[in-house]
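Changelog-linked ticket: flavin-adenine dinucleotide example.
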Amino acid sequence: MAKILILGAGYGGMAAAVKMQKSKIPFTIVNKHSYHYFTTLLHEPAGGRNDFEPYYVEISDILQESEAAIVKDTIVEIHPEEKRVIGERDEYTYDYLVFALGNAPEFFGIPGLAEHSLLLRSLESAKEIRSHIENMFAAYAVDKDPSRIRIVVGGAGLTGVELCGEMAEWLPHLASRYRIPDSKIELINLEAAPTILPMLDKRLQDTAREVLESKGARIRTNEKIVRVGEGEVELATGEKIEAKTMIWTGGVRANPLLAQAGFDCDPRGRARVNEFLQSVDYPDVFVMGDSAAFVGEDGRPLPPTAQLASQMGDHVADNLNYLLNGQPMKKFTFDYMGTLASLGSEVGVGNVKGFSTKGVAATVMKEASKIKWLINLGGISLLARKNRQFTRSH
Ligand code: FAD
Ligand code: NAD
Protein backbone atom coordinates (compact mmCIF):
# COMPACT_ATOMS: atom_id res chain seq x y z
CA MET A 1 0.00 0.00 0.00
CA ALA A 2 1.32 3.48 -0.92
CA LYS A 3 2.44 5.64 2.02
CA ILE A 4 0.43 8.87 2.08
CA LEU A 5 1.60 11.68 4.32
CA ILE A 6 -0.58 14.74 4.98
CA LEU A 7 1.17 17.76 6.50
CA GLY A 8 -1.19 20.13 8.30
CA ALA A 9 -4.62 19.64 9.87
CA GLY A 10 -6.21 22.93 8.82
CA TYR A 11 -9.01 23.32 6.27
CA GLY A 12 -7.14 21.65 3.39
CA GLY A 13 -5.51 18.85 5.39
CA MET A 14 -8.67 17.94 7.31
CA ALA A 15 -10.86 17.98 4.19
CA ALA A 16 -8.42 15.59 2.50
CA ALA A 17 -8.15 13.39 5.59
CA VAL A 18 -11.92 13.10 6.11
CA LYS A 19 -12.46 12.17 2.46
CA MET A 20 -9.65 9.63 2.50
CA GLN A 21 -11.06 8.11 5.65
CA LYS A 22 -14.45 7.74 3.93
CA SER A 23 -12.66 6.03 0.99
CA LYS A 24 -10.80 3.73 3.44
CA ILE A 25 -7.38 4.93 2.27
CA PRO A 26 -4.78 4.74 5.07
CA PHE A 27 -2.63 7.80 5.72
CA THR A 28 -0.51 9.62 8.30
CA ILE A 29 -1.38 13.20 9.23
CA VAL A 30 1.19 15.38 10.99
CA ASN A 31 0.18 18.62 12.68
CA LYS A 32 1.86 20.84 15.24
CA HIS A 33 -1.13 20.54 17.61
CA SER A 34 -3.35 17.63 18.56
CA TYR A 35 -6.38 19.71 17.52
CA HIS A 36 -7.87 21.42 14.47
CA TYR A 37 -8.93 25.03 15.05
CA PHE A 38 -11.58 27.00 13.18
CA THR A 39 -9.46 29.85 11.79
CA THR A 40 -12.43 31.38 9.98
CA LEU A 41 -14.01 32.19 13.36
CA LEU A 42 -10.96 33.16 15.39
CA HIS A 43 -11.71 36.88 15.33
CA GLU A 44 -14.64 36.06 17.62
CA PRO A 45 -12.81 34.78 20.71
CA ALA A 46 -9.75 36.99 19.99
CA GLY A 47 -12.13 39.96 20.09
CA GLY A 48 -13.83 38.92 23.30
CA ARG A 49 -16.79 36.82 22.09
CA ASN A 50 -17.23 33.44 23.82
CA ASP A 51 -14.69 31.15 25.48
CA PHE A 52 -12.11 29.36 23.33
CA GLU A 53 -13.54 25.85 23.78
CA PRO A 54 -16.01 25.94 20.85
CA TYR A 55 -13.29 26.99 18.39
CA TYR A 56 -11.31 23.77 18.13
CA VAL A 57 -11.75 20.02 18.04
CA GLU A 58 -9.29 17.21 18.80
CA ILE A 59 -8.18 15.59 15.55
CA SER A 60 -8.64 12.17 17.16
CA ASP A 61 -12.35 12.99 17.64
CA ILE A 62 -12.67 13.22 13.84
CA LEU A 63 -10.27 10.66 12.40
CA GLN A 64 -10.24 6.97 13.30
CA GLU A 65 -7.14 4.89 13.95
CA SER A 66 -8.25 2.32 11.34
CA GLU A 67 -7.23 4.73 8.53
CA ALA A 68 -5.40 7.60 10.18
CA ALA A 69 -2.14 7.69 12.08
CA ILE A 70 -2.24 11.07 13.84
CA VAL A 71 1.13 12.54 14.73
CA LYS A 72 1.78 15.69 16.73
CA ASP A 73 4.98 17.22 15.40
CA THR A 74 6.26 20.46 13.87
CA ILE A 75 7.70 20.05 10.40
CA VAL A 76 11.00 21.85 9.89
CA GLU A 77 12.33 20.60 6.53
CA ILE A 78 11.10 18.90 3.39
CA HIS A 79 13.35 16.92 1.03
CA PRO A 80 11.16 16.16 -1.97
CA GLU A 81 13.90 14.53 -4.01
CA GLU A 82 14.42 11.98 -1.19
CA LYS A 83 10.67 11.74 -0.39
CA ARG A 84 11.51 12.64 3.18
CA VAL A 85 10.15 15.15 5.68
CA ILE A 86 11.83 16.17 8.92
CA GLY A 87 9.97 17.18 12.05
CA GLU A 88 11.19 18.41 15.42
CA ARG A 89 10.47 14.95 16.88
CA ASP A 90 10.85 12.50 14.01
CA GLU A 91 11.43 11.92 10.30
CA TYR A 92 8.76 10.75 7.85
CA THR A 93 8.97 9.14 4.42
CA TYR A 94 6.22 8.96 1.83
CA ASP A 95 5.14 7.80 -1.59
CA TYR A 96 2.71 10.74 -1.86
CA LEU A 97 2.94 13.96 0.10
CA VAL A 98 -0.01 16.29 0.71
CA PHE A 99 1.32 19.70 1.72
CA ALA A 100 -1.28 21.74 3.63
CA LEU A 101 0.77 23.78 6.12
CA GLY A 102 -1.11 27.03 5.51
CA ASN A 103 0.42 30.48 5.51
CA ALA A 104 2.91 32.76 7.21
CA PRO A 105 2.43 36.47 7.91
CA GLU A 106 3.52 38.91 5.20
CA PHE A 107 5.48 41.74 6.84
CA PHE A 108 6.61 43.45 3.60
CA GLY A 109 9.96 44.19 5.23
CA ILE A 110 8.40 46.91 7.43
CA PRO A 111 10.94 47.61 10.20
CA GLY A 112 9.87 46.51 13.68
CA LEU A 113 6.56 45.02 12.51
CA ALA A 114 7.37 41.35 13.18
CA GLU A 115 8.91 42.14 16.57
CA HIS A 116 6.21 44.47 17.88
CA SER A 117 2.88 43.23 16.57
CA LEU A 118 0.36 40.59 17.49
CA LEU A 119 -1.11 38.35 14.77
CA LEU A 120 -4.42 36.55 14.31
CA ARG A 121 -3.59 33.21 12.70
CA SER A 122 -4.03 30.35 15.17
CA LEU A 123 -5.85 29.47 18.37
CA GLU A 124 -2.84 30.48 20.48
CA SER A 125 -2.42 33.80 18.69
CA ALA A 126 -6.12 34.53 19.27
CA LYS A 127 -5.64 33.81 22.99
CA GLU A 128 -2.59 36.04 23.01
CA ILE A 129 -4.52 38.99 21.54
CA ARG A 130 -7.34 38.63 24.05
CA SER A 131 -5.15 38.28 27.12
CA HIS A 132 -2.82 41.09 26.00
CA ILE A 133 -5.74 43.52 25.67
CA GLU A 134 -7.22 42.45 29.01
CA ASN A 135 -3.82 42.98 30.65
CA MET A 136 -3.51 46.44 29.07
CA PHE A 137 -6.91 47.49 30.43
CA ALA A 138 -5.99 46.19 33.89
CA ALA A 139 -2.67 48.09 33.76
CA TYR A 140 -4.42 51.28 32.60
CA ALA A 141 -6.61 51.16 35.69
CA VAL A 142 -3.36 51.55 37.68
CA ASP A 143 -1.10 53.90 35.65
CA LYS A 144 -3.63 55.75 33.39
CA ASP A 145 -1.24 55.56 30.40
CA PRO A 146 -3.59 56.25 27.41
CA SER A 147 -1.44 54.18 25.00
CA ARG A 148 -2.60 51.07 26.88
CA ILE A 149 -6.20 51.52 25.78
CA ARG A 150 -5.35 52.62 22.23
CA ILE A 151 -5.50 49.62 19.92
CA VAL A 152 -4.19 49.74 16.38
CA VAL A 153 -5.17 47.16 13.77
CA GLY A 154 -2.95 47.31 10.68
CA GLY A 155 -4.83 46.37 7.49
CA ALA A 156 -8.54 46.57 6.69
CA GLY A 157 -8.89 43.44 4.61
CA LEU A 158 -11.30 40.76 5.83
CA THR A 159 -9.21 39.76 8.86
CA GLY A 160 -8.74 43.33 10.09
CA VAL A 161 -12.37 44.32 9.58
CA GLU A 162 -13.80 41.18 11.21
CA LEU A 163 -11.51 41.60 14.20
CA CYS A 164 -12.42 45.29 14.59
CA GLY A 165 -16.11 44.37 14.43
CA GLU A 166 -15.68 42.05 17.40
CA MET A 167 -13.44 44.35 19.43
CA ALA A 168 -15.75 47.32 18.94
CA GLU A 169 -18.43 45.33 20.76
CA TRP A 170 -16.13 43.95 23.45
CA LEU A 171 -14.01 46.96 24.47
CA PRO A 172 -16.87 48.92 26.09
CA HIS A 173 -17.60 45.87 28.30
CA LEU A 174 -13.94 45.64 29.24
CA ALA A 175 -13.90 49.37 29.97
CA SER A 176 -16.86 49.11 32.27
CA ARG A 177 -15.19 46.19 34.13
CA TYR A 178 -12.21 48.49 34.87
CA ARG A 179 -14.35 51.62 35.32
CA ILE A 180 -12.82 53.36 32.32
CA PRO A 181 -15.06 55.85 30.43
CA ASP A 182 -15.83 54.58 26.87
CA SER A 183 -14.69 57.91 25.47
CA LYS A 184 -11.08 57.16 26.46
CA ILE A 185 -10.81 53.93 24.43
CA GLU A 186 -9.46 54.16 20.89
CA LEU A 187 -9.74 51.41 18.30
CA ILE A 188 -7.99 52.49 15.10
CA ASN A 189 -7.97 50.48 11.87
CA LEU A 190 -5.24 51.67 9.49
CA GLU A 191 -5.48 50.79 5.81
CA ALA A 192 -2.90 51.75 3.17
CA ALA A 193 -5.37 51.51 0.26
CA PRO A 194 -8.09 54.09 -0.45
CA THR A 195 -10.84 51.67 0.61
CA ILE A 196 -11.48 48.89 3.08
CA LEU A 197 -12.51 45.40 1.91
CA PRO A 198 -11.36 45.84 -1.72
CA MET A 199 -12.99 42.56 -2.79
CA LEU A 200 -16.51 43.90 -2.09
CA ASP A 201 -18.44 46.53 -4.04
CA LYS A 202 -18.46 50.16 -2.93
CA ARG A 203 -21.94 49.99 -1.38
CA LEU A 204 -20.90 47.13 0.90
CA GLN A 205 -17.58 48.81 1.72
CA ASP A 206 -19.50 51.93 2.79
CA THR A 207 -21.93 49.87 4.88
CA ALA A 208 -19.07 48.07 6.62
CA ARG A 209 -17.35 51.35 7.38
CA GLU A 210 -20.54 52.93 8.72
CA VAL A 211 -21.27 49.94 10.96
CA LEU A 212 -17.76 49.88 12.40
CA GLU A 213 -17.70 53.64 12.94
CA SER A 214 -21.10 53.57 14.59
CA LYS A 215 -19.66 51.09 17.09
CA GLY A 216 -16.79 53.45 17.87
CA ALA A 217 -13.95 52.19 15.64
CA ARG A 218 -11.92 54.76 13.68
CA ILE A 219 -11.25 53.64 10.11
CA ARG A 220 -8.38 55.51 8.49
CA THR A 221 -7.79 54.70 4.82
CA ASN A 222 -4.80 55.90 2.74
CA GLU A 223 -2.67 55.43 5.86
CA LYS A 224 0.33 53.23 5.28
CA ILE A 225 2.26 51.80 8.23
CA VAL A 226 5.98 52.18 7.55
CA ARG A 227 7.60 51.36 10.90
CA VAL A 228 6.60 49.86 14.22
CA GLY A 229 8.47 50.33 17.48
CA GLU A 230 7.87 49.40 21.09
CA GLY A 231 4.50 51.07 21.79
CA GLU A 232 4.58 53.16 18.61
CA VAL A 233 3.28 52.89 15.04
CA GLU A 234 4.65 55.21 12.37
CA LEU A 235 2.75 56.16 9.21
CA ALA A 236 4.03 57.20 5.77
CA THR A 237 2.90 60.77 6.57
CA GLY A 238 5.38 60.85 9.46
CA GLU A 239 2.61 60.71 12.09
CA LYS A 240 3.42 58.51 15.07
CA ILE A 241 0.66 56.81 17.04
CA GLU A 242 1.46 55.69 20.56
CA ALA A 243 -0.23 52.35 21.14
CA LYS A 244 0.73 49.40 23.27
CA THR A 245 -1.42 47.07 21.17
CA MET A 246 -0.61 46.70 17.49
CA ILE A 247 -2.33 43.82 15.66
CA TRP A 248 -1.06 43.15 12.14
CA THR A 249 -3.62 41.85 9.63
CA GLY A 250 -1.84 43.22 6.55
CA GLY A 251 -1.57 40.03 4.52
CA VAL A 252 -0.23 36.51 4.24
CA ARG A 253 2.26 34.50 2.21
CA ALA A 254 2.76 30.76 1.94
CA ASN A 255 4.50 28.60 4.49
CA PRO A 256 8.25 29.24 3.90
CA LEU A 257 9.16 25.51 3.92
CA LEU A 258 8.18 25.24 0.26
CA ALA A 259 10.59 27.88 -1.02
CA GLN A 260 13.28 26.57 1.34
CA ALA A 261 12.88 23.10 -0.21
CA GLY A 262 13.39 24.56 -3.69
CA PHE A 263 9.81 24.30 -5.01
CA ASP A 264 8.95 26.62 -7.88
CA CYS A 265 7.03 29.35 -6.03
CA ASP A 266 5.20 32.57 -6.94
CA PRO A 267 6.24 35.90 -5.34
CA ARG A 268 4.06 35.11 -2.28
CA GLY A 269 5.98 31.84 -1.73
CA ARG A 270 3.12 29.61 -2.93
CA ALA A 271 4.18 26.47 -4.81
CA ARG A 272 2.97 26.42 -8.40
CA VAL A 273 0.62 23.51 -9.01
CA ASN A 274 -0.87 21.97 -12.14
CA GLU A 275 -4.56 21.36 -12.87
CA PHE A 276 -4.49 18.22 -10.68
CA LEU A 277 -2.97 20.16 -7.72
CA GLN A 278 0.40 18.42 -8.06
CA SER A 279 3.51 20.54 -7.61
CA VAL A 280 4.90 21.41 -11.04
CA ASP A 281 8.30 20.13 -9.82
CA TYR A 282 7.31 16.93 -8.02
CA PRO A 283 4.22 15.03 -9.21
CA ASP A 284 4.20 12.95 -6.02
CA VAL A 285 3.64 16.16 -3.97
CA PHE A 286 0.15 17.68 -3.87
CA VAL A 287 -0.03 21.24 -2.54
CA MET A 288 -3.23 22.93 -1.42
CA GLY A 289 -4.84 25.86 0.35
CA ASP A 290 -2.81 28.91 1.34
CA SER A 291 0.38 27.15 0.23
CA ALA A 292 -0.68 26.60 -3.40
CA ALA A 293 -0.50 28.96 -6.38
CA PHE A 294 -3.41 27.66 -8.45
CA VAL A 295 -4.06 29.92 -11.40
CA GLY A 296 -7.72 30.90 -11.79
CA GLU A 297 -9.67 31.93 -14.90
CA ASP A 298 -8.30 35.49 -14.75
CA GLY A 299 -4.73 34.14 -15.02
CA ARG A 300 -3.91 35.02 -11.39
CA PRO A 301 -3.47 32.69 -8.41
CA LEU A 302 -6.74 32.29 -6.48
CA PRO A 303 -6.80 34.20 -3.16
CA PRO A 304 -6.15 32.04 -0.10
CA THR A 305 -9.41 31.12 1.62
CA ALA A 306 -10.80 28.24 3.65
CA GLN A 307 -13.42 27.51 1.00
CA LEU A 308 -10.63 27.06 -1.56
CA ALA A 309 -8.46 25.00 0.81
CA SER A 310 -11.29 22.63 1.73
CA GLN A 311 -12.36 22.13 -1.90
CA MET A 312 -8.73 21.43 -2.79
CA GLY A 313 -8.47 18.96 0.10
CA ASP A 314 -11.51 17.08 -1.14
CA HIS A 315 -10.14 17.04 -4.66
CA VAL A 316 -6.68 15.83 -3.69
CA ALA A 317 -8.23 12.93 -1.76
CA ASP A 318 -10.20 11.97 -4.87
CA ASN A 319 -7.16 12.26 -7.13
CA LEU A 320 -5.09 10.08 -4.79
CA ASN A 321 -7.89 7.52 -4.87
CA TYR A 322 -7.83 7.57 -8.69
CA LEU A 323 -4.03 7.28 -8.76
CA LEU A 324 -4.03 4.31 -6.38
CA ASN A 325 -6.64 2.59 -8.52
CA GLY A 326 -4.81 3.25 -11.81
CA GLN A 327 -7.49 5.67 -13.03
CA PRO A 328 -6.91 9.11 -14.58
CA MET A 329 -6.96 12.07 -12.18
CA LYS A 330 -9.52 14.89 -12.55
CA LYS A 331 -8.76 18.59 -13.06
CA PHE A 332 -9.51 20.91 -10.15
CA THR A 333 -12.07 23.68 -10.62
CA PHE A 334 -12.94 26.12 -7.87
CA ASP A 335 -16.61 26.65 -7.04
CA TYR A 336 -16.53 30.17 -5.57
CA MET A 337 -19.43 30.55 -3.16
CA GLY A 338 -18.79 34.20 -2.26
CA THR A 339 -17.31 36.30 0.51
CA LEU A 340 -18.87 37.19 3.84
CA ALA A 341 -17.44 39.54 6.46
CA SER A 342 -18.89 39.68 9.94
CA LEU A 343 -19.03 43.09 11.62
CA GLY A 344 -19.55 41.88 15.16
CA SER A 345 -22.03 39.35 16.48
CA GLU A 346 -25.16 40.59 14.75
CA VAL A 347 -24.50 41.98 11.28
CA GLY A 348 -22.22 41.43 8.32
CA VAL A 349 -21.72 42.26 4.63
CA GLY A 350 -20.83 40.15 1.64
CA ASN A 351 -21.83 38.61 -1.61
CA VAL A 352 -23.00 35.08 -2.19
CA LYS A 353 -23.08 33.64 -5.69
CA GLY A 354 -23.00 37.18 -7.13
CA PHE A 355 -25.75 38.60 -4.87
CA SER A 356 -24.95 41.29 -2.32
CA THR A 357 -26.10 40.75 1.22
CA LYS A 358 -25.84 42.77 4.41
CA GLY A 359 -27.15 42.95 7.94
CA VAL A 360 -28.48 39.93 9.78
CA ALA A 361 -28.84 37.95 6.52
CA ALA A 362 -25.05 38.00 6.03
CA THR A 363 -24.56 36.74 9.59
CA VAL A 364 -27.00 33.90 8.99
CA MET A 365 -25.13 32.88 5.81
CA LYS A 366 -21.82 32.96 7.64
CA GLU A 367 -23.37 30.73 10.30
CA ALA A 368 -24.45 28.35 7.52
CA SER A 369 -20.86 27.99 6.29
CA LYS A 370 -19.74 27.19 9.85
CA ILE A 371 -22.43 24.52 10.14
CA LYS A 372 -21.42 23.04 6.77
CA TRP A 373 -17.80 22.71 7.86
CA LEU A 374 -18.70 21.12 11.21
CA ILE A 375 -20.98 18.58 9.53
CA ASN A 376 -18.32 17.78 6.94
CA LEU A 377 -15.80 17.16 9.72
CA GLY A 378 -17.81 15.24 12.27
CA GLY A 379 -21.44 14.99 11.18
CA ILE A 380 -24.44 16.06 13.22
CA SER A 381 -22.89 14.87 16.49
CA LEU A 382 -19.97 17.31 16.21
CA LEU A 383 -22.37 20.09 15.23
CA ALA A 384 -24.56 19.37 18.27
CA ARG A 385 -21.53 19.23 20.61
CA LYS A 386 -20.12 22.52 19.29
CA ASN A 387 -23.55 24.19 19.44
CA ARG A 388 -23.82 23.24 23.12
CA GLN A 389 -20.36 24.74 23.73
CA PHE A 390 -21.25 27.94 21.85
CA THR A 391 -24.46 28.30 23.88
CA ARG A 392 -22.65 27.66 27.18
CA SER A 393 -19.86 30.14 26.43
CA HIS A 394 -22.07 33.14 25.53
P1 FAD B 1 -4.62 26.27 7.68
O1 FAD B 1 -6.07 26.14 7.85
O2 FAD B 1 -3.93 27.45 8.26
O3 FAD B 1 -3.95 24.94 8.25
C1 FAD B 1 -2.58 24.78 8.39
C2 FAD B 1 -2.33 23.76 9.49
O4 FAD B 1 -0.94 23.42 9.51
C3 FAD B 1 -2.65 24.29 10.89
O5 FAD B 1 -3.31 23.28 11.63
C4 FAD B 1 -1.28 24.60 11.49
O6 FAD B 1 -1.27 24.50 12.89
C5 FAD B 1 -0.44 23.52 10.85
N1 FAD B 1 0.98 23.86 10.72
C6 FAD B 1 1.51 25.02 10.26
N2 FAD B 1 2.86 24.93 10.22
C7 FAD B 1 3.18 23.68 10.66
C8 FAD B 1 4.40 22.99 10.81
N3 FAD B 1 5.57 23.54 10.52
N4 FAD B 1 4.35 21.71 11.26
C9 FAD B 1 3.17 21.11 11.56
N5 FAD B 1 1.98 21.72 11.44
C10 FAD B 1 1.98 23.00 11.00
N6 FAD B 1 -11.53 31.92 4.64
C11 FAD B 1 -12.78 31.69 4.17
O7 FAD B 1 -12.94 31.05 3.11
N7 FAD B 1 -13.88 32.15 4.83
C12 FAD B 1 -13.80 32.84 5.98
O8 FAD B 1 -14.82 33.25 6.55
C13 FAD B 1 -12.49 33.09 6.51
N8 FAD B 1 -12.37 33.76 7.68
C14 FAD B 1 -11.11 33.96 8.19
C15 FAD B 1 -11.01 34.64 9.42
C16 FAD B 1 -9.76 34.87 9.95
C17 FAD B 1 -9.66 35.61 11.27
C18 FAD B 1 -8.59 34.43 9.27
C19 FAD B 1 -7.23 34.68 9.88
C20 FAD B 1 -8.68 33.75 8.08
C21 FAD B 1 -9.94 33.52 7.51
N9 FAD B 1 -10.10 32.84 6.30
C22 FAD B 1 -11.35 32.60 5.79
C23 FAD B 1 -8.91 32.30 5.59
C24 FAD B 1 -8.73 30.83 5.95
O9 FAD B 1 -8.70 30.65 7.35
C25 FAD B 1 -7.45 30.23 5.34
O10 FAD B 1 -7.41 30.52 3.96
C26 FAD B 1 -7.44 28.72 5.57
O11 FAD B 1 -7.31 28.44 6.95
C27 FAD B 1 -6.32 28.04 4.78
O12 FAD B 1 -6.39 26.65 4.96
P2 FAD B 1 -5.06 25.78 4.90
O13 FAD B 1 -5.48 24.36 5.07
O14 FAD B 1 -4.25 26.13 3.71
O15 FAD B 1 -4.21 26.25 6.15
P1 NAD C 1 -5.38 40.82 2.89
O1 NAD C 1 -4.11 40.74 2.15
O2 NAD C 1 -6.62 40.42 2.19
O3 NAD C 1 -5.62 42.31 3.43
C1 NAD C 1 -4.56 43.03 4.02
C2 NAD C 1 -4.88 44.51 4.01
O4 NAD C 1 -3.79 45.18 4.64
C3 NAD C 1 -5.00 45.08 2.59
O5 NAD C 1 -6.19 45.81 2.48
C4 NAD C 1 -3.76 45.94 2.46
O6 NAD C 1 -3.96 47.08 1.63
C5 NAD C 1 -3.48 46.34 3.91
N1 NAD C 1 -2.08 46.71 4.13
C6 NAD C 1 -0.98 46.08 3.63
N2 NAD C 1 0.15 46.73 4.00
C7 NAD C 1 -0.25 47.78 4.77
C8 NAD C 1 0.45 48.82 5.45
N3 NAD C 1 1.78 48.91 5.42
N4 NAD C 1 -0.26 49.72 6.17
C9 NAD C 1 -1.63 49.63 6.22
N5 NAD C 1 -2.34 48.69 5.57
C10 NAD C 1 -1.67 47.76 4.86
O7 NAD C 1 -5.16 39.98 4.25
P2 NAD C 1 -6.24 39.31 5.22
O8 NAD C 1 -7.37 40.23 5.49
O9 NAD C 1 -5.49 38.77 6.37
O10 NAD C 1 -6.78 38.08 4.35
C11 NAD C 1 -5.91 37.04 3.95
C12 NAD C 1 -6.68 36.00 3.15
O11 NAD C 1 -7.61 35.34 4.01
C13 NAD C 1 -7.48 36.61 2.02
O12 NAD C 1 -7.44 35.79 0.89
C14 NAD C 1 -8.89 36.67 2.56
O13 NAD C 1 -9.87 36.51 1.54
C15 NAD C 1 -8.92 35.48 3.52
N6 NAD C 1 -9.85 35.81 4.61
C16 NAD C 1 -11.17 35.62 4.37
C17 NAD C 1 -12.09 35.99 5.32
C18 NAD C 1 -13.56 35.81 5.02
O14 NAD C 1 -13.89 35.23 3.98
N7 NAD C 1 -14.45 36.31 5.86
C19 NAD C 1 -11.65 36.51 6.56
C20 NAD C 1 -10.29 36.68 6.77
C21 NAD C 1 -9.39 36.33 5.78
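Closing comment: Example verified and attached. The chain is about 35% helix and 25% strand. The longest helix spans residues 360-392.
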